[in-house]
Amino acid sequence: MAMTKDNVEMIHGYLDAITDIHLEELIKIASQPSVSAQNIGVEECCAMLMEMFTKIGMKTQILESPTKPAVFAELKSKQENVPTVLFYGHYDVQPAEPLELWNTEPFKPTVIGDKLYGRGVADNKGQFMAHVMAVQSYMEVLGDVPVNVKFILDGEEESGSPSLPWIAEHYRDLLQADIMYVSDGSMYSDIIPQISYGNRGILSFDIDITTAETDNHSGNKGGVIENAAWQMVKLLSTMVDEDGHATIEGFYDTITPISPAQQKMIEELEFDPATLCKLYGVKKLKYDDKVEFYRHLMFLPTLTINGITSGYGGDGSKTIIPCHAKAKIDIRLVQGQKGLDIYEKVKRHVEKVDPTAVLSEYSVMEMSVTEPSLPIIMKVREAVEKAYGVKPVNMPLMGGSLPNYVFTDILNMPTISVPYGNPDENNHAPNENFKLSCYFSGIHATAQVLYELGTLAAE
Ligand SMILES: [Zn+2]
Fold this sequence. Notes:
Layout: H1 5-17, H2 19-31, H3 42-56, E1 59-63, E2 70-75, E3 84-90, E4 110-112, E5 115-117, H4 125-142, E6 148-154, H5 164-170, H6 172-175, E7 179-182, E8 194-196, E9 198-199, E10 201-210, E11 216-217, H7 228-237, H8 260-268, H9 273-280, H10 290-299, E12 304-310, E13 320-321, E14 324-333, H11 339-353, E15 358-359, E16 363-365, E17 368-369, H12 375-388, E18 393-395, H13 405-410, E19 415-417, E20 433-435, H14 436-458
Parallel strand pairs: 3-6, 3-7, 7-19, 8-18
Antiparallel strand pairs: 1-2, 2-6, 4-5, 5-20, 9-17, 10-14, 10-15, 10-16, 11-13, 12-14
């Protein structure tokens, strides 16, 4: 029997009745330290989660990797022909230091007022627990879930998820799903959700120029030898035009156009330059026009000098000709761009302009994009709107970078990000917190998403 509206209403009622238990369960998981960077408690937390999933009736497996293991859990729906949703989350947390700035003990989660305080309560334990609690409630009330459910909980997201691509390649079949759903970060406000459908990638490398074995006297040798600092400035200045757009051959060639659904989302976004200027601490933005602003923030790549080091920058004077200059560069990649291709284009440019300049090895996190008008994505959007009773803010892409490409590009599944945290959750900082109402509304949201996705096959 297919699940009905009455079924999901029953679940919502049940959820409202057992919020104490939901809170208890989160406190239990958040009491277990699991700091990947310091190698504290990660294995213990892993074991705890395996036990929790097993209790719900899920099949679990530890996904070993070259670094830290991920936790996998799976539950098959008794409904026939229903989609599979893969929830991604991470059970590791940021280090709690500096401890003296906490008002409570980081690993003794404590309710003060309308919030739960503790390391990891929002980033990300509380958010994936919202999914777990929704699944658990379906099982307790109906003995079934509307769709097939899978979880992958990363054990080293806070250390940059070094093995996530490896895990995706090696457990490809296990992880197969129709959609990946992640809740991390914060909502638009405590009551208005924000959905995003992708993010820019990031390509980083250094450029080094060496003109002599040592710094030289700017008088005794001034005028007769090269200066590494000037050479770097000249090289960098050939890489962008007046507006800061890259002048590297082929840089923009592979970019795919903004889709109609993405365009519509941009037009619906709010844009208040005065507030943004205040937030960024700047006098003016480069673009006053809303569409241009968001186009440059989401759909156009950047070429950023993160830092330049050369010669002497201290007090007083030091009359030298610097022998070495280094520039650190990052490029935010957009839809259609691949890290290696752009790196090679930059390398060709640099070799042509200044053959003495040396590009370092690069590191890359590819961009990730999901078309917002896909039927399965539209279903989730609908479910989120119903659950919160308000239209979500839709961000076609995030300007920053996340490893979501692992799901869209390696595992070929649409990916949607629906954060459940309050905007002042203080993640990564002392006094991290999760507003209880946000935790509970997140559980409702997941319950609704599971139900709506279950109607997809029936249509
Ligand atoms: Zn984090």
